[in-house]
Design goal:
263 residues, Immunoglobulin-like, seven-stranded mixed sheet, mainly beta
């Protein structure tokens, strides 16, 4: 049995619960690694050493800035199996992982492309500044290689269950994120009301509520309701089902509809 290795969680999640690491899998040639994104750094104290044919189960935790991070490992695919510690209905392989602040992703990588590689941010400056880690195959020499993906293939819809009818909600709440001319701050508008006129949101148990979250800004933003899970029903106009999250990455110029459920 090859050595299993954890990189311990070094920073508390911003506005999120502590991460519960899943138990080590009892699969031969598999190791499990926890990587934390904090202050534009990837918390990796040493290179990740792997062998050809090995499986690595990564736990990625976005615990700091920036608001969103896109990660890539050249020549490899991430098979996403869980989001925010909840198993996804349909595990799927992607070339890029996108995380908002507070999100967690569990993904398995088949180590089938021997060499020395850089796992890191798509942003060149962030990667050079520390948002990266070296992935080294046994008996491979030379500098770590990096090249960007041909395209970004990330979407929650990739992991959806079969389409199903969604019962109507007792109450639908429209949440708009917008930018005002000359103001660098982002502003929330809830059912047409903005601060300081926004009323406190409450979700009494036993009644179905649905949020229609619209991002009218040029950047993605994390949405989290402490004490509640969000179950997306439509992502970027695509119906989805079976995905449970506590933090949702609301993409730029897009809409996500999600039902609200108590934790």
């Amino acid at each position: 049995m090859k050595r299993r290795r954890f990189l311990q969680l070094a920073a508390a999640m911003a506005g999120a619960a502590a991460v519960r690491a899943t138990a080590l899998a009892s699969v031969h040639n598999e190791q499990e690694i926890l990587l934390t994104i904090c202050d534009r750094m990837l918390d990796a104290r040493e290179a990740i050493r792997v062998g050809a044919g090995e499986r690595v189960r990564f736990h990625f935790v976005h615990a700091g800035i920036p608001d969103e991070v896109h990660l890539h490992l050249p020549g490899h695919l991430f098979r996403v199996v869980a989001l925010d510690e909840n198993p996804v209905p349909t595990p799927a392989a992607v070339g890029v992982l996108s995380l908002a602040r507070g999100e967690r992703i569990e993904a398995i990588v088949e180590m089938n492309n021997p060499g020395n590689w850089t796992l890191g941010s798509l942003d060149d400056a962030d990667r050079a500044g520390g948002l990266s880690v070296r992935v080294t195959y046994a008996a491979q020499q030379g500098p770590a290689q990096w090249y960007p993906p041909a395209f970004v293939d990330w979407s929650y819809a990739r992991f959806s269950g079969p389409p199903r009818l969604t019962p109507p909600a007792d109450q639908s709440i429209e949440v708009l994120l917008e930018e005002k001319p000359g103001d660098r701050m982002l502003h929330w508008v809830i059912d047409g009301k903005s601060y300081p006129s926004i009323e406190h949101l409450s979700f009494p148990p036993g009644r179905p509520y649905r949020l229609r979250m619209m991002n009218a800004t040029s950047r993605a933003y994390p949405v989290r309701l402490p004490g509640y899970n969000l179950q997306p029903s439509r992502v970027n106009q695509i119906p989805v089902s079976g995905i449970i999250k506590d933090t949702i990455r609301l993409e730029r110029y897009n809409v996500i509809e999600a039902d609200v459920a108590c934790v």
